[in-house]
Structure formats: C-alpha cells, structure tokens
Amino acid sequence: MTLNPPPSQQTPHSPRRIPNRRVLIVGNYCHDVLIQNGSVVAETLGGAASFISNVLDSSSVSCELVSKVGHDFRYEVTHSPIVVPEKETTVFEAYFDLGIDGIGHADRVLKRVSACDPILPSDIPDSRFDFGMAVGVGGEILPETLEKMVEICDVVAVDIQALIRDFDPVDGAVKLVDLKESGFFHILHRIGFLKASSDEALFMDVEQMKQLCCVVVTNGEKGCRIYHKDDEMTVPPFLAKQVDPTGAGDSFLGGLVVGLVEGLTVPDAALLGNLFGSITVEHIGQPKFDLMMLQRVKDEVQKRKKQCNLSSSHNNDYNEFHERLSPARFSCVDSQLQPKLLVNGHSCDR
Ligand SMILES: Nc1ncnc2c1ncn2[C@@H]1O[C@H](COP(=O)(O)OP(=O)(O)OP(=O)(O)O)[C@@H](O)[C@H]1O
Ligand SMILES: O[C@H]1[C@H](O)[C@@H](O)[C@H](O)[C@@H](O)[C@H]1O
After folding, report:
1. Which of 29, 101, 204, 222 is the most exposed place for a label (fewest CB within 10 A)?
2. Could you tell me if residue 193 is inside a domain?
3. Range of the domain at 306
4. CATH number of the domain that residue 265 is part of
C-alpha cells in the first residue's frame, strides 16, 4: 500500500510569483494546569499549536503560527502570539484522577476554565502555504477560519479536537459532538488529513471520512491507524515510559507534517509522528528534543528518501524505517529525570 499524500486541494488561483511558505499553524496557545488528587502538580505552556511548533522548529521546518492569548500570557515563545489585552489566555485544567474507565480510554478529564478570542480569517496572512494545520483546542477555529485555510494552503491537516469540542457552560468540561453536527462538515471534502484520537474517532464516521481525506487515528501506546479510500494500515509505536500524555497527539501531528513536508509517504510520515508522540509522553509539558536524536532522525529521513527514490519496492517496507529510527529515539534518555506524577498505568517498559 502506498498511501501517498493526497493531491492538493487548491482552489484555482493565479500563477505564483512568490514561492509558498512552508507550514501555517492556526490555534491558540493555552495555560495547562495539571491536577492530581486535588493538588496542582504542574502548570505548563499548552495548546496544540505550541507542541506542534516545537516539533517543527526542532526539525528545522519553517512555520508561521497564528495564535491569540490574553494580557496574562506567561511564556516566552518563538512564535509571538496576537495579544488581546482585554481578554485572558485560554486555560485548561486537566484532572488525572477523574473518569479513568479502567480500560485506558479516558486518561484525563479536561475543563476549559477560560477562553481567549477566536481566530478570524482576517488574522491569517494572505500568503500561500504548502501545509496548513487547523489545531484549535478551545473552540477558537471557526468554520470561516478553516475555509480561509483551505483556500490559501495546498494541503490542510486538521485535528478533530478543533472541530468537535463543546464546553459545559457551568464548569467548562469538554464534551464532544458528532462531526456531522459540528458546523464544519461541509468543508471537510477540501482538507487533506483528519487526525483523531481513538476516543474522538467515535464521533465521526471513519468509513465516510476516509473517502473524503486521509484519516489518521492515534491510539496511545499502540501507535496509529491510517485510512484512505480503500486502504488502511496500522503504523507501529515506539516504546516509551509515559509520564504525562498531554500533547502526544499534537506532537504526533507535528511529526506527521514534518515527514510529509520532507516528501515521505504517509506511513513513513506517521512513523515520525509516532516517534515524536512517544517522546512527548515522557515529559511533563513541552518536550525538549535531544539534539543528537534530532540529527539522527534527519539523517534517517534523508536515507529513507534516497532509498525510496532508488527502488519503489522499498516504499511499503516501513518496518525497516521503524527499526532504523528506534535507536535514534533511544538516544533521548532524559526521561529518567522527570518526576513520575502522572503515570496512568499504560506505559511500556523498554
Ligand atoms: N504510552 C505511549 N507509548 C508510546 N507511544 C505513545 C504513547 N502514548 C502516545 N504515544 C504516541 O503518541 C501518539 C498520540 O497519542 P494519543 O493517541 O494518546 O493522542 P491524544 O489522545 O490525541 O493525545 P493528547 O490529547 O494527550 O495530545 C500515538 O499514536 C503514539 O504514537
Ligand atoms: O495543551 C493541551 C494539548 O494541546 C492537548 O492536545 C489539548 O487536548 C488540550 O486541550 C491542551 O490543553
């Protein structure tokens, strides 16, 4: 199975004089408060946009980020957000001791306790991009925002959490609505990739969506599964010692897009996604990727591209790529230093 990136969903536009910028990330930064047994165990920079830009920046993939925060935003970030002085930054509380259902599904209960402004089409630059990533966390992506993204980006990857989250009016608890009722359904035939966790995938019809775009369902320590038209396949995980699952799906999506921008096939790019996801669960908050590991991954990606160019028969053998990436992944050993406050009992031993 090849599962190559779907062709671009470009709308007709005049011939380009200026080359595309590479990746546009749209989604608000937030403050994450991690709570266990009634106590705050960590406060960190959050938001899918922050985890994704961390992966892209670390992998030297140039990106532009559109994000809104309030006057109280606390973090130094590489990609400056738009500050809305009269608003507060989006805040999520993540409760790690509620709602664990015994079979590893709900690893945390999330409450959005404050929400910054939505991102409007006019907040997004008018340039063209190779990839767009619609990665809201607190309802900040509007249907018209996504419409603008599909117009200016060759391929758009969407995290379903940006589309199907609803928030309890009293305590902000995150609820999910069916994708068909989300108000975004009419735009989805124009996107390239839809990423969902296995819990979120229950809120869409995968059989229907895989006809419209490439669907990627992540499944924690089990890796991920890709669906496109009549093809589907599982892409294996990397072993990790889980400390905090926050941001794993975001880093996964970052790794997937790094692979696609580099010209890898979808399964190979998903392997990079699994790699960055597995490293992220070993950290509380934003992972700092080991420089040696990043260099080894870059080298392996280049080797893989050469190999695929030489022989199309290698295209489907992503197991070999997995074997080559595994040692690179284990050069990143600082997980031993992390306090293990948020282990959920679903981690793997190396
Ligand atoms: N315990 C783990 N061991 C190894 N890899 C993991 C583990 N947890 C997550 N991953 C990797 O990260 C990817 C994304 O994880 P997951 O499916 O938990 O996403 P998610 O629920 O969207 O995460 P989040 O909402 O916390 O960002 C997985 O497909 C897998 O590759
Ligand atoms: O920082 C986290 C992270 O981005 C998660 O993917 C998202 O589900 C949460 O809402 C957010 O607080």
Report:
1. 101
2. yes
3. 21-28+47-66+119-337
4. 3.40.1190.20
* Ligand 1 atom showing the smallest separation from residue 48 Cα: 27
Does the complex come out with an ipTM higher than 0.95?
Answer: yes
**144 with 118: CB under 8 angstroms?**
no
The answer to whether residue 139 is domain-embedded is: yes
Q: Is residue 188 part of a domain?
A: yes
- Nearest ligand to residue 176 Cα: 2
Spell out which residues line ligand 2, taking CB within 6 angstroms: 30, 32, 46-48, 51, 92, 110, 137, 161, 246-247, 249-250
Residue 266 lies in a domain: yes
Strand order across the 231-235 sheet: 63-66, 21-26, 129-134, 153-159, 193-197, 214-218, 224-228, 231-235
**CA–CA separation, 216 vs 237, rounded Å?**
14
Q: How many domains does the chain have?
A: 1
This model's pTM is above 0.95: no
| Alpha carbon of 259 to ligand 1 centroid (Å) | 17
Ligand 2, residue 248: give the atom nearest the CA: 6
